Amino acid sequence: MTVTVPGTAPASLAGSAPPLALRGLSVAYAEAPAVWDVSFEVPAASLTAIIGPNGAGKSTLLKAALGLVPRLAGEALFFGAPLSRVRRRVAYVPQRTSVDWDFPASALDVVTMGLYGRLGWLRRPGRRERAQALACLERVGMADFAGRQISELSGGQQQRVFLARALAQEADLTFMDEPFAGVDAVTERTIVDVLHGLRGQGRSVVVVHHDLDTVREYFDRVALLNVSLVAAGPTGTAFSPAHLRAAYGERHGALAAALAGGPP
Amino acid sequence: MTLPFDLVIVGTAVMVAWACTLPGLFLVLRRQALLGDAISHAALPGIVAGYWLSGGSLASLPALVGASLSGLLTVGLSALIARSGRVKEDAALGLVFPALFAAGVIAVSLNYGNVHLDLDAVLYGEIAYTPFRPGWLGLPAAWVLVGGMGLVNALFVGGLFKELRLSTFDPGLARTLGFSPRLLSGALLTLVALTVVAAFEAVGAVLVVAFLVVPSATALLLTRRLGTALGLALGAGLSASVLGYVVALALDASITGVVAGVLGLQFVGALAAQGLRARRVRGRAAPQG
Amino acid sequence: MSLSPADFFTDYTLRSIVLGSALLGLVAGTLGCFSVLRRQSLIGDTVAHAALPGLCAAFLLTGTRDTLGLLVGGGLSGLLASLLALGILRYSRLKEDVALGVTFSTFFGIGIALLTAIGQSGNAAQAGLEGFLFGQAAALTAGDVARFAVLGALALGTVAALHKELQLSLFDPDYAAVQGWPVAGLTALSTALTVLAVMLGLQTVGVVLMAAMLIAPAVAARQWTRSLGGMLRLAGGFGALSGGLGAALSLALSPEGGAGLPTGAVTVLTATALAVLSLLLAPGRGVIAGWGRQRQARARLRRELAGGRR
């Protein structure tokens, strides 16, 4: 089911194919399945949280959709096409801890990397790219840190730099892996504002999320995962105590359901 | 009493394999697999100093002590540099051991430029000569030295297996539980340095480095259980020693080289087995429909 | 040999040695940045050891100690070993150090077996083959220097052209893959260039010391700069400096009539000295600057505590 917000979707989003459609996606590391037969769609102009207990395969699902880990079965379609045909419309914000922050680069250098895809082979980023990157740093409140060595940034600031890099891509669909993990309140607020801004432009974001407290406030859709998909859909219906108990198990499920604001 | 050549050589190889595997498994888990190579090179200045102090006998105790000391110096200096936070562990090690080796090379060329100090014999000791070097109680020197180190390692790893496992996987928890991970890893690395020196004097650096890394890597491909991995690695070292010796005799090739080759083949076999198993699991597990 | 500075400009042999060593330092220093940043610093050592079976095979095939043949043979087996290590990293859970350790000890073992076989055949040129492994800068000729220059320019030109691509795949491989860059190919390319640098260096500084020529200039350069471009250029400069200076020092300091000071060893000690000085003295990242900042901060906080603020 695709929900289009009239008048706000960019021209590129015209057409009926949803930004993301997962069909029977499965992944196995070594022996045990990590993600099992997951199918759901992400409509245009939506913010989707992927939630579930530790080890539920949330990050793995993201990586499998993006082709970063081998799939056992299933497919992921982006705007109705395989990723290789629409890479420019898809952005990815990896977990902050997945890179070496002692790498010799400034905040601006990292954001400029978001424009490399558009530049193509051999062409170097120039003044125009730097200006675009700076504008993106501005949007996450980090313009003053443009020349700062990335190792000197706090965790929250590093996360905002990563977000700015994704913004530079001007993608219609953005994946974020645990962007709220261990960040300060200012960063969390900034990220949420940026996400809502993107949705207002008719773009979609899929976020691996941990904090059940904030799901209702930040996201309009959820995908509840525990290796296989428990529920997916609008927050109002999918983020229900029954589904949470099913995803988190009986013991933690009661707590999760309480956090979600429903009856225990 | 003289032991048969075959027994001495194969026995030495197995002792080196086991003495190296015991601490080697933990080196592999701690991302320090290349430490053995580094120590075997960095030992040179210590050997030269020992040679100089003892007035010119290579296989003597002073050379052994000197080599051990410079091995320990490598471990200590690279840890110190890495702890400054400016350099990663691998680069710190790569900064220290070539510098020590270079110092050794210069010391050799300055002091013994006219005397023939056979560097190759020091660095690449030859296992085929072990039967000709008597040690103690009629046992070959290599057996006394390497066997002794192996025994110390076995006592250390056997006695502190639980503590080593904990401090390898979760140093923070180990510290809060009152085990000192720093003390443990210091003791482990000291044993590695001593083992490398004792063993390369007998069989050469190549085989030592291979035994420190390859059997453990092979075992860890096949299992994630530490105890099982140790057993598998000891078995791999034993079979590679015996098989390598037999093949080397048949081909009239270097024993060291063939044993290292067999270890490599075992690793490739484990890698293939792991790949096949993963594929089989996938084939069986893919959801229908 | 007693030398005056002018000799370095007029003496044909000296010029070749110094220029050749400096060129090696330039290429190795630049390419070393990639392996240091990828946490594969010891790949230089690995490749250098893994070249042995290729060197021996080339020698057995051609029967001569022709430099080019040996370089190609050694390069191919070094490249094979490092690609195998990359493959092990990709298809198993083992870490960098283990992947390098396994391939290098196996290859070196096979090389030793081949070397022994050559020794048994009683070929006189075998001694030369071993000299190759320990490095002989003194044997550098003008032809070698020209060869270094061409291959070095090729390697550095590739790095310059693909700077952006290599940077991205080094810093954030997953992100680069999602953008559609061929990360595995780019990694293999930078590894192949490193193998090339090692092959050039084998002749000059030898197997063991080659590791330092990749690592020390990169470590030194990292202390002074905040960008990859700056690090690459500085590391090249530090490498060239230690190569040239090391060669010149070893020639100038060699005792009259005695055996010469080994060029490779002096070069490596020069590079290490530069790295240690940079680690200690660099502003910002330097250890001493760090102590200073920490002391000032502590003193300020103590004053604030005493003043009852906070």
Automatic annotation (TrEMBL), chain A:
Keywords: ATP-binding, Nucleotide-binding, Transport. The keyword Repeat does not apply. It comes from the Bacteria. Residues 20-252 form the ABC transporter domain. GO terms for molecular function: ATP binding. Pfam families: ABC_tran. InterPro entries: AAA+_ATPase (IPR003593), ABC_transporter-like_ATP-bd (IPR003439), ABC_transporter-like_CS (IPR017871), Metal_Ion_Import_ABC (IPR050153), P-loop_NTPase (IPR027417). Belongs to the ABC transporter superfamily. This is Metal ABC transporter ATP-binding protein.
UniProtKB/TrEMBL annotation, chain B:
It is found in: Cell membrane. It is a multi-pass membrane protein. The chain crosses the membrane at residues 6-27, 59-80, 92-112, 141-161, 182-200, 206-223, 230-251, 257-276. It comes from the Bacteria. It holds the Pfam family ABC-3. SUPFAM superfamilies: ABC transporter involved in vitamin B12 uptake, BtuC (SSF81345). The keyword Membrane applies. Keywords: Cell membrane, Membrane, Transmembrane, Transmembrane helix, Transport. Belongs to the ABC-3 integral membrane protein family. This is Metal ABC transporter permease. It comes from Deinococcus rhizophilus.
From TrEMBL, chain C:
CDD domains: TM_ABC_iron-siderophores_like. It is a multi-pass membrane protein. It comes from Deinococcus rhizophilus. Keywords: Cell membrane, Membrane, Transmembrane, Transmembrane helix, Transport. It comes from the Bacteria. InterPro entries: ABC_BtuC-like, ABC_TroCD. This is Metal ABC transporter permease. It is found in: Cell membrane. It holds the Pfam family ABC-3. SUPFAM superfamilies: ABC transporter involved in vitamin B12 uptake, BtuC. Belongs to the ABC-3 integral membrane protein family. The chain crosses the membrane at residues 12-34, 46-64, 70-91, 98-118, 138-163, 175-196, 202-220, 232-253, 265-292.
